[in-house]
Amino acid sequence: MEELKFVGHPAVRIDGKEKVTGAAVYTDDLEFGPDLLYAEIVEGPHAHAMIRAIDASEAMKVPGVICVVTGKDFPYNFGLYMKDRFIFAQDRVRFFGEQIAAVVARTPQAAKKAARLVQVNYSPLPKVVSPLEALREGADLIHPDLKHYEHVPWFFPKPDTNIAHHRKVRKGNVEQGFAEADYILEDTYEVPRYAHCAIEYHAAVAKYDHSGRLTVWASSQSPHTQRNLFAIALAPLGIRHNDVRVIAPHVGGGFGSKAGVTMEIIAAAIATKVKGHPVKVLWNREREFYNTYQRLGVVAKLKIGVKSDGRITALHHSLFWDAGAYVEYGANVVNAVGLSAIGPYRVDNASIDSYCIYTNLPPGGPYRGFGYSEFLFGLESHMERMAKHLGIDPVEMRRRNAIRAGDITAYGAKMNPNGLHQAIDAVAKEIKWHETPSPSGPDMAIGKGFSLFWKAPAMPPNTSSSCFLKFNEDASINLLVSGMDLGQGFLTVMAQIAAEILSVPISKIRTENPDTDRNPYEWQTVASHVTWGCGNAVKRAALDAREQIFSLAARTHDVPKDLLYLEDEVVKCKRRPGFALPLKDFVIHGIQMEDGTFKGGPIMGRGVFMPEYASTKADPETSQGGHPNVHYTVGAAAAIIEIDKQTGRVQVKKVVEAVDCGKAINPSLVKGQITGGILQGISTVLYEEMKFDHRGKMLNPNFTDYKIPTALDIPDEVIPLIIEVPEPDGPYGARGMGEHTMLPVAPMIANAIEDALGIRMKSMPITAEKICLAMTGLKKQQEK
Amino acid sequence: MKKISFTLNGELRQVDVAPNEILLEVLRYKIGVKSPKCGCDTGDCGACTVILNGKAVRSCLIFAIEINGQEIVTLEGLSKDGLTPLQKALLDRNAFQCGYCAPGMILSATCLMSGNPHPSEEEIKESIAGNLCRCTGYQPVIDAISEVTKKH
Ligand code: FES
Ligand code: FES
Question: Which of A62, A80, A651, B142 would give a disulfide with A114, using CB separation of 3.0 to 4.6 Å?
């Protein structure tokens, strides 16, 4: 194999210097001049109510107020996968804190003051705040119009119920599988809602100018999808796709929260009412918690049958998702899990029911891991428990069942090449699985836990990425793509791929976050798919440019094209040692011939990628027949933890995680994802907890009461391991791994807690308080 | 409105502020210094950290009027003469991801290092414990700080 000069190297991030000098510009750092207007949201103080009347007359009297807009001004619904959402509540409020209206004013102070003066008259309705409650006979309907909503063909809503989607998977003969089992374990696991907690708020500024051009600057994971959804929702105003321009500066953390469309559409819509003025909508920390997407909660009922040697004979997984008031994005989380809730195992007989259930809580939506963390908590807890029951080492139990390339997934497609077995072995070795660590004192208990993980990108089958590559006079390059660098290092990785093919150093490649007018199409930066999808588009664009370079060199210099190659920005020939055409001599101005004419012209590469084998067409009763997932990324992790038996406090001593990313295009960035993802996972299992009161109001929407870890809460040691079993259609074999890093953490910690204390925790979070209570319960039991 | 004057990154600045105006907002929206960020407005996240008379403080908790006659440094001031060894180490290690916490984090660590050039790992963690980061897991930032404080 040829030696790679850029791919596979720990290059320094191309946006690194901006970020360590404070030069990086985020949406709220942009300047819009003295004409900028500010919008403040009026929120509904009920989880479920009808809106009777809105009176803005007092608000309009506040000096500086320009206008007040309400749902009546925008009777449009929108949504990514199902159009069940509204720019402002129409006649009904469906969660506490939902946007009812907005006041637009010349200063933020005036807008805030006036927003408090908007009078809204409500008639409260009975509310439903848990998924099981929402399923009960006679439960109030949160979306009586469900049957009229447009949705993607792979959703199956149940009209006149609160079920927005039911993903049903049937494979093999489950009954027979359970009949053949020597041991069956059945239990229920609960995972509550979580918040993303990106440190930057959502922010959007929109301007609808007098020529009918709508420009939106937003902190966004999805510039093109936002353009698309704005254009569709605002089409009644005569707005077309090419009238809308989304510009995305740096994003201060996304984790799914800034994917699809949420508050940005408020700015876009308001702008159409204040033509000519830019208008800013800036969220605050509280709204970050209760009025963006939240991670969905789930109640998962799991039943697995195994032979006495640990081999799985059958699996049934029922997942009841608390999907919140609007599920236009969240229903696809439910769908993705439905397809994949067998976990990274070979299961011949499986049935899965994944229900997307409306509740009167904030909308559930994409969150790093897209539902996989949630079902893996139960599944990987279950595997550990079954191994212990059978007297099999839990790692060995997983080895016996771990999926291999060519095995059949729950929906009948073949599993892609993967390094799951290598990952298991590498982690077991590094954590010294067969040694028993000793606690640091008499009041301490020590334990270790293991977990596997897998995840596929969840995306429409025709998801695509594209790239333009433009050379400049000095052979530097502008690489135009529309993926977002959310911090994962996307832009750097794209530059590394182009550098590799064109032999141009990374320092000469400029690639920035996009402007939908200038940069070519990308669906969204979600699903950990951009390294793979957009990486392929970049590779194709670079190959396209290289082809143009070689063709031009061949026809102007009478050399055979197939003997040409690039080295250090120079075209060379394998058979003519002295032949050297520096790129900078011709990539813009062409090559001059003896008669004085020029050949060529600016070199511009173009690359497009769409996985043409993907399909969601399948039998709705079994999910068999399609190819909904392009591939899975797999891995394994283990932890050693120590628990203070007096306080229940858990200290994570060591975590080892191995992820098979196919090819680490930038190993430094891959390791960064692992270190960061592990702490985010630890946080969900040990610290974070949302509290809602009886009205459905979130009680702790701030960092004082909703704790995320500080530098004092990190594991003593994190060991990232990279496994590289290439993905056949990935750029240099790469597949995504950003979200995956947090997936194994919660079950791995729960397993370690059981190992340390003999207590099995089946609901998250597992706070120190819960551990203490469980220990007291255990002691009482032992005393009896 | 009251006119206040203070030193910002080595330059004398004058600005009119109302008594209830917050330093973070005055810096960002009146003066146009954008490296101090807002992540909570309640003193929890540290994104708004600035150096006030040599100490790292949260500018979202300070009234602008209080800084009359005082000295403030933001990340813009730190970067004037090229990267500091700490910035260089953070850059080389790809320590930050989204970078939103970076200005606050760097100023907190810089303050630590000026008073305590050779801190222990625990002291490093303490010094940035008020700066929340959701991306990095903190370890790469801690490693960069300890690399620099061991070397210099
Ligand atoms: S904005 Fe000041 S501490 Fe968060
Ligand atoms: S790098 Fe994103 S918050 Fe720290």
Answer: A62
* Ligand 1 center to B131 CA (angstroms): 9
B85-150 topology per CATH: DNA polymerase; domain 1 (1.10.150)
- The ipTM, to two decimals, is 0.98
Looking at the domain that runs over A297-459+617-783, which CATH code has it been given?
Answer: 3.30.365.10
Q: Which is nearest to A765 in space by CA: A373, A417, A320, A410?
A: A373
Please give the residue of chain B at the shortest CA–CA distance from A32.
B29
Q: What is the residue-wise DSSP string for A232-272?
A: HHTGGGT--GGGEEEE--B-S--TTTTSS-STHHHHHHHHT
Token digits for A201?
Answer: 């708020």
In chain A, residues with a C-beta closer than 8 Å to the C-beta of B141 are 711
Task: List the single best residue of B92, B135, B145 to mutate versus A (max A Cβ within 10 A).
Answer: B135
Determine if ligand 2 sits within 6 Å of the CB of residue B138: no
pLDDT in tens, B121-143: 999 999 999 999 999 999 999 99
Average pLDDT of the residues of chain A: 97
User: Nearest CA to A678 among A621, A740, A742?
Assistant: A742
The pLDDT assigned to B79 comes to 81
Could you tell me which residues are beta bridge partners of residue A224? Answer: none
Whole-prediction pTM: 0.98
CATH 1.10.10.10 is right for the domain spanning B2-78 = no
Q: Which of B44, B96, B108, B131 to mutate to test the pocket of ligand 2 (most atoms within 8 A of CB)?
A: B96
Instruction: Measure A677 CA to ligand 1 centroid, in angstroms.
Output: 23
Q: Do domains B2-78 and B85-150 have the same CATH topology?
A: no
| Exposure string over A707-746, b if 16+ CB within 10 A, otherwise e | bbbbbebbbeebbbbbbbbbbebbbbbbbbbbbbbbbbbb
Q: Is B27 in the pocket of ligand 1 (CB under 6 A)?
A: no
Tell me which DSSP letter residue B35 carries.
Answer: S
Q: Closest Cα partner for A669 from A507, A492, A484?
A: A492
The tens digit of pLDDT for each residue in A735-783 reads: 999 999 999 999 999 999 999 999 999 999 999 999 999 999 888 888 8
The whole-angstrom distance between A308's CA and the closest CA on chain B is: 41
Rounded to a whole number of angstroms, the CA Rg of chain A reads 27
Any atom of ligand 1 within 6 Å of the Cβ of B103:
no
Confirm if B51 and B110 have CB atoms less than 8 A apart. Answer: yes
CA-to-CA dists, residue B94 to A137, A267, A668, B89, B102, angstroms: 54, 34, 7, 9, 12
Of B39, B47, B137, the CB nearest to A718: B137
Q: How crowded is residue A33: how many other Cβ atoms within 10 Å of its Cβ?
A: 7
Interacting residues of A493 by C-beta distance below 8 A, sequence separation 6+: A531, A535, A665, A666, A669
Question: Nearest CB to A702: which of B32, B40, B135?
Answer: B40
Q: Alpha carbon A427 to chain centroid distance?
A: 25
* B-chain residues near A488 (CB < 8 A): 97
* Strand boundaries in A148-243, DSSP class E: 163-171, 183-191, 203-208, 214-218
Section A9-15 average pLDDT = 98
Please tell me the predicted confidence (pLDDT) of residue A1. 52
Cβ within 8 Å, pair B134-A669: no
Q: What CATH topology corresponds to A33-125+215-282?
A: Aldehyde Oxidoreductase; domain 3 (3.90.1170)
Classify domain A16-23+464-609 at the CATH topology level. Aldehyde Oxidoreductase; domain 4 (3.30.365)
- Our CA-based measurement puts residue A583 at a distance from the nearest CA of chain B, in whole angstroms, of 29
- Domain-by-domain residue ranges, chain A? 16-23+464-609, 33-125+215-282, 297-459+617-783
Residues A421, A400: contact at Cβ < 8 Å? Answer: no
Looking at the complex, report in whole angstroms how far the Cα of residue B65 sits from the nearest Cα belonging to chain A: 18
A297-459+617-783 has the same fold as A33-125+215-282: no
Bond before A442 cis per omega within 30 degrees: no
Residues in B closer than 8 angstroms to A252, CB to CB, are 37, 39, 98-100
